[in-house]
């Protein structure tokens, strides 16, 4: 019988692509986010059950990160609600090298439901759909940990792996590590973006203290600053996050997309064009 799929975070970077790919294959898909109907909010467990009614398989994107305080409780409650509403399979998006996220992974793995854990490295799309877009547009990207080598992965590849985990049973019980095919330092990806978009973009290494001070002076909330500090300090420098995995090729039968290809395709959209500063 045809399955009903729910994509939590279905308007985000990987979720939107999972929705499109499932729909493209003719599957029944519902989106759950704060703007869906019924509305789904991680901060309000009352919204979990209504979103899960009638659903067989779920792609879970927790926001902002499985490592933040409260994520473990939310994933535990969601898993419980999924069991109670008759869900058969959970596919959880997790982060590579994130020790704290592993507690959440264990909740899903020990749920008794079929499951797949999709552990991703940092996304290419952080530069086109997320926090590094503005710095790129402004022509100056400053980050700490300049020596970290990151196997940036494309959100399309993550979504394709997640779709395989959702629709087939071959990946049940597995942890799939999704990375890109090469390791890059931040300065190197900035150079690739500059070359692809034919403009000059400066990379500036800063200390973690300078970086957090900058976020504080920009008025960003403490929880956001905590998360970024954690991601740079614990995740980017974790040796397991600096390894290339062959899992994308194992699952999809083709190589993952390179950062260069992503940069060339994205540059063509014009999103990295120089943003003129307004005012004097
Ligand atoms: N970005 C990376 O490089 C990276 C790497 C590895 C793992 N991850 C993991 O990917 C996950 C998503 O991170 P992301 O930054 O890439 O986000 P994202 O998927 O681009 O966007 C967030 C999604 O979550 C929804 N959302 C936001 N707040 C919500 C709330 N309170 N309740 C329900 N839905 C909410 C948003 O829709 P609405 O606004 O409509 O609610 C949107 O669909 C995190 O768990 C992170 O650990 C990210």
Q: Which short descriptors sum up this protein?
A:
280 residues, alpha/beta, Rossmann fold, six-stranded parallel beta sheet, 11 helices, 8 strands, binds NADP nicotinamide-adenine-dinucleotide phosphate
Q: Overview of this structure, please?
A:
By secondary structure, this protein is of the alpha/beta class. It has a domain at 4-121 and 153-179 and 243-256: Rossmann fold (3-Layer(aba) Sandwich). 40% of the residues lie in helices and 15% in strands. The chain has helices at residues 15-24, 48-52, 71-84, 99-109, 133-138, 155-167, 186-196, 208-217, 222-235, 247-252, 259-269, and strands spanning 4-8, 28-32, 57-60, 89-95, 114-120, 140-143, 174-178, 202-205. The longest helix is centred in the first third of the chain and has 14 residues, at 71-84. The N and C termini lie far apart (63 Å). The model has no long low-confidence stretch (mean pLDDT 95). NADP nicotinamide-adenine-dinucleotide phosphate (NAP) binds next to strand 4.
Mean pLDDT: 95
**What is the β-strand count?**
8
CATH topology call of the domain at 4-121 and 153-179 and 243-256: Rossmann fold
**Low-pLDDT ranges:** none
Write out the distinct hetero groups bound to the structure: NADP nicotinamide-adenine-dinucleotide phosphate
- What coarse outline follows from CA principal-axis ratios? globular
- Named at the architecture level, the CATH assignment of the domain at 4-121 and 153-179 and 243-256 is 3-Layer(aba) Sandwich
Q: Rg from C-alpha positions?
A: 19 Å
CATH class categorisation of the domain at 4-121 and 153-179 and 243-256:
Alpha Beta
Beta-strand portion reads 5-15%
Portion of residues within helices: 25-40%
Structural class: alpha/beta
Order of helices and strands: EHEHEHEHEHEHEHEHHHH
CATH superfamily of the domain at 4-121 and 153-179 and 243-256: NAD(P)-binding Rossmann-like Domain
Main β-sheet, in a few words? 6 strands, parallel
